[in-house]
Each structure stands twice: as structure tokens, then as C-alpha cells.
Specification:
alpha/beta; seven-stranded mixed beta sheet
Length: 404
Amino acid sequence: MASSAHKGVAQAVHRHRHLSRQGLLERAFTFAFRGLVYAQIWEDPEVDMEALAITPDSHVVTIASGGCNVLSYLTADPAKITAVDLNTAHIALNRLKLTAAKTLPDHARFHRFFAQADSKLNVAAYRSFVAPHLDEATRRYWEGRDLIGRRRIGGFARGIYKHGLLGRFIGAAHLLARLHGVNPKRMLDAQSREEQRAIFEAELAPVFDSPFTRWLTSQPASLFGLGIPPAQFEALAGDERMNGVLKARLEKLACDFDLKDNYFAVQAFGRGYAGGEGPLPPYLQAGNHKAVVDRVDRVDVRHVNFTDFLASQPAQSADRYILLDAQDWMDDDQLNALWGQITRTAKPGARVLFRTAGEPSILPGRVKDEVLGRWAYQAEASKDYTARDRSAIYGGVHLYVLKD
């Protein structure tokens, strides 16, 4: 299964000859993507749930990623969620979260496991409550060893959000800032939006203008830790220098939202959920715990390509689709195959939500008119969702609704 999944990622990313510069970068990315990438997903679930307008009869089909949003969507009370992913580690993380929600005795222990995520008690709780109920593949993954011989489940005793490709990228960004004499955790000292902006402009913004940072961020491999393949790097940069693009995105994260309400910023600047006492995604909030536990069996996690899953489903069998930023990876043939299956399986009133590295929707001129013409792009709403997405990393959040 892992081999077939790796082939799926390769098919999505590889566009150039093996020994060309771009080809080597693409293959380096797929190698990096084989392990855990996102311990936390970086799309705002509150924006998602508003855009999707989930109802009690909704069948949500989403890319699983780190699983945070899959569990958070349960708070909107859908009939069913199918979460698909090609990454073996993401599948294991989603299944761990779902099983932990069912088997850990109370919210306090669930919160400690995934919000604090740095206690040896989590490993004991895993052994006592969670492990006996895991499927064999998931248990084998978490009890297996990483590249330096540590059992993967131990990540929940060491701070899981410092692990994975994204966790290491954030750690490297902190190191880069410290080499410039700056501590990104200073952002968390701010007591107001005005203080947030003052700290950002005085301390963090100048780091992006240094010659070393300009050179480093011009290398596509430097952003592999964000899960950005070479093709998406080009879309993200556009006609601008990458250091300027990244500075603008970090400015939005640091300044456009109150840090007391933005767990993405707390993760970026503090490398965790502030001891579990700060802002949290919906699935970790105490008020939502019972709803998540009661509805957890509505989630079906599949180790499969999104398009292939839809191809196996009946017509008009789903009505909410979340593609994250996966389309940025796709060529025109892959986009048309995906949207052909989305359109075939879509119920009346279906909604599709996705993000892009650049600002505009990537679909016009690439998806065939006879397919895309059946969907109405919600341009003004999409601009609003983009502005309010607290993760701040994407250029655009886009919503399409199936026409009558």
C-alpha cells in the first residue's frame, strides 16, 4: 500500500525528466513527502464550515491531511465524512485521533494527548486505552521506529507538533530567525493587535530582507517543509521574489488576527498549542468533545487517491468536497479527471472548497468548459473567506457551487 501511495504522489508531482533540475527537485519532494508532513492541518476549519454550509444529510469528502479538520467538521453534524489521503503517516494519524476520541476516558486526557502532546502520560494512555482498539496497520505504524530508532508514538511525549516535515520547517525558521538575533516566540508576548504589528515590523520583518534569507527562500527545496512541491513554488512566487511573498503571508498571520483567537499563529510562533491553554481547533475544545465522540463513527478514512475514490462511488452520492491545495500539484489531465468525477458524484447544491498558493482560481482555461460550466464560482464569498482564513499561508480560498 505504501508503494502504491508513493506512486500516486509521484504521478501528481513528477512533470519533468529525472535528471533535469526540476525533475530532481520533484523527486526530492516526493521522497520527503513519504513521512509525516502535517501533525496539524493548515486550513482554517471555521472558514471551511461556513463556506461548506454542512447539513445533517451532507456527505463530506475531504483530503485527510493531519486530521484536525476531519474531526472538527463533526461539530457541524454531517451524515458522513470520507477522508482520503495518499500519505501513510497521515492515514495513521487520522485513525489514531479517531480511535483516541472513542477510547480515551474523558476530555482531559484527549486534550492532554493532542493539545499538550508532550507528556509521558500520553504514551501510557496510548498503551492502556488506544492501542488495543487500533487496526493492525495503524498500530504497527505508531509502534514502529523513526529514522533514529525512536518509537513514533513517543512523539506525543516530546511534542508532536515539532515533528513531521512542517514541524521541522517551523523549527528551522525559528533557527534562521535566531541567527538574525530574533526570537519568534516574542510575538506571543503581544497583548493587542497594535503590539503584534509593532513586534512583527521591528523584529520579524527585517529577517526576510537579509541577503541570506533572500537567497534561501529562492530555492524551491527550502519550502518542501510547507508541503509545497516545485510547481506550487512557482505559483506561490508568481512575478515576485519569494522572500517578499513569505513576508506578506507571515505579516497576515502575525498582524491580521488577534493571537488569542488564532491557534495557527500560536503554532507558528510557539511551536505548540501554548501548553494546551491557548486557542484550539474545534475538535479539541471542551464544549465540542461530546459531539466529536458521539459522531466519530461517521468518519471513514481511506488510503486512496481522491479521484479514484470518487470513481468508485455512485452518481450523486456526495455534496461537500474539500480539496485543500492539492490541485496546485495537478496537470490539466488530472484536473479534468478530478472534476469529471466530482461533477458525476455531486448531489444538487453540492459545494467544492479548495485553496491555492496564488490568488486566482486555477480552474478557468484548464478544466473543460462543459464541466466547469456546471459550477458557479462564488467570487465575492471566496475573497471574504481568503481574508478571514487564519492560517494565512494561502493566496486564495475558493468556493464553487453546483448550478441548478
